[in-house]
Design goal:
Length: 340
């Protein structure tokens, strides 16, 4: 992390024993990056009170050094990819000197529940992805200032305790056990919603209209209906579902990227109004004919630069690539083939 006033952390010595490795730094430093030092603890590390960022990514820490609790200037704390369990995190809820923390990352550890983050009244980013969390209980205590919440790759079965996040812009709940889209109605500033690799069968955006990116890849959808009011939507990812018909798209006039690959679609439709469409992913479907595609994409013929149709019956048509290049005068990529 390069920032004014920051001194780069010294490179680890691979020949030194972990216990003998001492980290020395300028006591006026504001950023300390100890990524991949393989530290079991911070006994050999000085922690200047001037620190605003402390990055402990990819170490072997199983507990939190109590000295961290004295870093009153700290804005960013990352414990990504360590061995931290629930009990080890508990002290942080009493470290009131850290109340001004803005970014807290526990990604890729051993947590089974949401840590108590109630003392952080200015928190903007909270990341507990890649753990073993079984419920979102505890999120109700997280500050309503939050802008980014990441809880992907856990064991969460239900969307809950997020009603107060009126400022939230990014919500990542991919790779969990969600079956229903719910309790999203208060997230009126949400820009990105990532729900891939769950068990969701139907789209329900709870009335939200300002979202720009949505991913529902690898779920159990059989219909595209539910996005009609998301007129600000720019990117929509729906690959690896059971969708058989393109529908509910005609109002999404700001859409730039549409991915409906690996579904059961038999023909291209309902995208004639999408004049901003640049990327269209239709590969691994059941589209029989190229005839009709020109009419289906009439609004974006000049705008489209990338199209994927491989692994459809139509991709075996004589002159497949030539036909597509005639339809789309500014095409730059057809499947894996790039054009200058």
């Amino acid at each position: 992390m390069a920032e004014t006033g920051a001194a780069p952390a010294p490179a680890p010595n691979p020949e030194a024993d972990d216990d003998d490795q001492t980290v020395e730094l300028d006591l006026s430093s504001t950023v300390l990056d100890l990524t991949s030092f393989q530290l079991h603890d911070l006994d050999s590390v000085e922690l200047p009170t001037s620190l605003t960022e402390l990055d402990l990514t990819a170490n072997r820490l199983s507990s939190l050094d109590p000295r961290i609790g004295n870093l009153s200037n700290l804005k960013k704390l990352s414990l990504r990819q360590n061995l931290v369990y629930d009990a080890a995190v508990e002290p942080i809820s009493h470290w009131h000197a850290l109340a001004g923390l803005e970014e807290l990352v526990f990604r890729d550890n051993k947590l089974t529940k949401i840590p108590d983050a109630s003392i952080f009244k200015r928190l903007l980013v909270f990341d507990v992805s890649f753990n073993e969390i079984t419920a979102l209980h505890g999120l109700s205590n997280v500050s309503n200032t939050l802008k980014e919440l990441y809880v992907s790759k856990n064991e969460v079965p239900k969307i809950e305790e997020i009603d107060h996040f009126h400022e939230l812009q990014i919500l990542e709940l991919g790779s969990n056990r969600l079956r229903v889209m719910e309790n999203l109605q208060n997230l009126t500033n949400l820009q990105e919603l990532w729900l891939g690799r769950n068990r969701i069968k139907a789209v329900n955006l709870c009335g939200l209209k300002c979202i720009k990116k949505i991913s529902l890849q690898s779920n159990r959808l059989t219909s595209m209906k539910g996005f009609e009011e998301c007129v600000a939507l720019e990117e929509l990812y729906l690959s690896h579902n059971g969708i058989s018909k393109m529908e509910g798209l005609s109002t999404l006039v700001n859409l730039r990227v549409l991915d409906v690959s690996s579904n059961k679609i038999t023909s291209v439709g309902d995208i004639g109004n999408l004049t901003q469409l640049e990327d269209l992913w239709l590969n691994d479907n059941q589209i029989e004919l190229l005839e009709g595609i020109a009419e289906a994409v009439v609004g974006s013929r000049d705008k489209l630069t990338t199209i994927y149709l491989e692994n459809n019956p139509c991709a075996k048509s004589p002159g497949y690539s030539t036909t597509l290049r005639q339809i789309f005068p500014n095409i730059e990529q057809i499947d894996s083939d790039m054009f200058a």
